[in-house]
Each structure stands twice: as structure tokens, then as C-alpha cells.
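Follow-up to my post from last week.
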Amino acid sequence: MTIRLNGEPFEIAGPVSISTLLAELKIDPRQVAVERNLAVIKRDRYETTMIGEGDEIEVVKFVGGGSRDC
Amino acid sequence: MTIDSLVIADKAFRSRLIVGTGKYPSHTIMRDAHRAAGTEMVTVAVRRVNLTDKTKESLIDYIDRQSIFILPNTAGCYTADEAIRTARLGREVGLSNWVKLEVIGDERTLFPDNVALLEATRALVKEGFVVLPYTNDDPVICRKLEEAGAAAVMPLGAPIGSGLGIQNPENIRIIKDQARVPVIVDAGVGTASDAAIAMELGADGVLMNTAIALARDPVAMAEAMKLAVEAGRLAFRAGRIPRRSLASPSSPVEGLIGAGAPARS
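User reply:
Got it. Predicted complex:
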């Protein structure tokens, strides 16, 4: 299936849980936050929240910054 | 003097210097600068994970979370909706409900869009966030943000990254006089004296990034800023003398030798 991941089309065999997606991407779930179709998914729901065809997924983390000048 | 903590919402900080995490030459220099600054709160941005390059070290590994509270920001957001989304994501990464709220209204000056800022503040306060909005040095918008439930107000001293110092000291003083929440001067500091001036005006704290991160020696500048914030705070509490236009001698005028002698012609 095709999803949008951080604004780009992304192919993954699915449907998959958010946990599985993060594992495939080798991302430590403790260092990120995930949004599915504009709604933040709580970390304890990663196992049970499924991603389907066409879903828009954002995976973000903290980066250096003070203000907009970062 | 008694213990002088900065209290925002339910948290007390001994340090009144809040520092950014961007633009440093390296993560280790950032960590050392944070130590030298004695800061207990640093602000971080929320950005997409780079899916093609995951080799980069994590910023978080260079922040001592035992002594430093992480304040996510919404830097780079241009609408209330983007800022609200970013705040919610930041809460999930950091597991705290604090946010340094920025809604930028102009790319060149990075001045805030105060209409959108007020809207985002109201929405996030309703969701239980502790909101610290970055705003103009305008007493009216600061009052409105406070009424909207902001836990502190953060007027700029000068444009972000400009290093111009406190451009409108009287406004900062007015904002402080009227505020019932802490006033943090956010942005515009260039060097230590600027931070001291902000504190002497009565600000409860100063937030800075560029002035430290881009100094020739960030760690030394961080220490200078720590001392300046402490000095400015002490001077504010000590109560400065009033300004006067003419001299007032510091030494007694009685008992001068030659007193009573005929005046020189």
C-alpha cells in the first residue's frame, strides 16, 4: 500500500501498526512523536493503531533550535 | 537576600536564564555551554525525522535531563493550526505539557502574528498546556495573552537573532509592571550587558540562543550570560538610584582643607 510519510509517498506492505512502521524505519519510538491524519497517537497506542492505504503519517523528533532562526 | 526562584506555573527554577539548542558548532559545545550557563530550561524545536539519514546523533543525548527541563517550541510555524499541531507533537515527544509558543507573521523580521498567537494560546490553554508565548514588546498584547491563560509572557527585546539588545526598555518595564505572570525577555540579546539590562528592567528571566551559540567562544559567552543575568537580577532587587542630570558628590563637603580661606579670585 502507499501512505504519505513526512510529506512523501511511501510504500509499505500493509496494513501495519505504528510500532511495525517505526521498527521498519529503525526509529526509537521513545524519541519521536507520531501523527496519523492530523491526530497525535499516544505512545502506548502504537501497537494497536493501524495504518491503512492513503494515511498521512508524520514522525517528528526534537532538534536544536531557539527560535525561528534555528 | 532570600532564595529568589523563577516560578512558572507549578515549577521553580533557580536559574533565570533559558537557553536554546540551535546553531551551536557541535552537540558537545552545546552541552558545555548549557553547563556554563547554569541553565535549568532549554528550548528545542520539533521537526520531521530525516528518514534517509538516521545516522545523526540525537540532540536529546546531549541534554542533561536530570538538571535541565526541556521546553518544546513551535518555531517556524506561521499559522495557529500549525503551532497547535506542533505543540501537541512536542508534548508527545517530551512528555510534558509546556510549550514555547511561536506563531511567526513575517519572514524577514520574524515578528509574531499576534492575532494567531492569541488564538493558539487560547486553544492550547484549553487543552491543558502551560503556554509561554513569544510576542512583541507590546503591553496590550502581553495583557491579552495573560488574560488568555499564558503562564508567562515572552516579549522580544529585538528581532530574533539580531543581537541588537533591548530596543524598547520602557515597554519592557511597563509590561513587567502590569503583569501578574513572569515576564521573560525572549530574543534580541547580543551580549552580556543586554541580558543585564533586561533583568535590571525587572524581567523575570531571559531566553536566548544565537548570542551564545554563535559567539566566538560559546561556552565563555554562556558563563558571561549567567553572570549578567544574576548581576542584573541582583541590581533590580537592590534598587538602583534615581537618575539625575547634575553631579552629587560622594565625599563629604564638610572639612575640606582650605575651608574658610578667602575665595580664589
